[in-house]
Backbone:
């Protein structure tokens, strides 16, 4: 009876989810601006979850949990709990687009070429969407092409952290899980090609 119950549990989904949840906690540690593992987790989850719904829900939920802790226990800007910060949807939209792009690589080989493409394009997607959102909603820049250009130029130093964080974390997560699959037989997934 116990063996049948174990077979019903999708160990790989649990392990991938736990990796994503644990790594989201890295956002709580001090780091260089935008040098975080979130884009890498979106790529990793999209490639490793069997189910598309899990590829969206688990990373976004972990992002929200870490946002909640950052806003309410680290920054503590308000007296009442902050469930969503101002402009959060621009970041979340960018992660949805990154996951959508990464899912298009789901049945392809997880290779240096494909991973490099996802790293570069995902960092750029995040940069374009979040800074467009800041430009359109902050009122900090003029609402013309010059203001949009000025916003993107001012954001270049932050893009460096985004790109470097994604370059740093993505191979670590993919490599770590590849290593785990080779060491723990139950984690070998038929849907993954390296």
Residues:
């Amino acid at each position: 009876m116990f063996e049948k119950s174990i077979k019903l549990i999708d160990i790989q989904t649990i392990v991938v989810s736990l990796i994503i949840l644990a790594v989201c906690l890295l956002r709580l540690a001090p780091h260089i601006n935008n040098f975080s593992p979130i884009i890498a987790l979106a790529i990793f989850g999209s490639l490793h979850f069997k189910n598309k719904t899990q590829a969206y829900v688990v990373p976004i939920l972990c992002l929200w949990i870490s946002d909640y802790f950052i806003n309410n226990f680290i920054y503590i800007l308000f007296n009442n709990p902050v469930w969503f910060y101002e402009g959060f949807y621009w970041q979340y939209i960018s992660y949805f687009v990154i996951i959508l792009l990464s899912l298009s690589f789901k049945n392809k080989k997880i290779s240096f070429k494909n991973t490099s493409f996802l790293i570069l394009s995902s960092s750029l997607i995040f940069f374009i969407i979040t800074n467009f959102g800041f430009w359109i909603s902050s009122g900090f820049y003029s609402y013309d092409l010059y203001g949009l250009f000025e916003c993107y130029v001012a954001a270049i130093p932050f893009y460096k952290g985004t790109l470097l964080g994604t370059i740093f974390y993505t191979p670590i997560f993919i490599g770590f899980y590849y290593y785990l699959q080779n060491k723990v037989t139950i984690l070998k997934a038929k849907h993954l090609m390296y």
Summary: DSSP finds seven helices and no strands in the chain. Residues 1-8 have pLDDT under 50 and may be disordered. Residues 99 and 188 are 22 Å apart (CA to CA). The chain has one domain: 2-187.
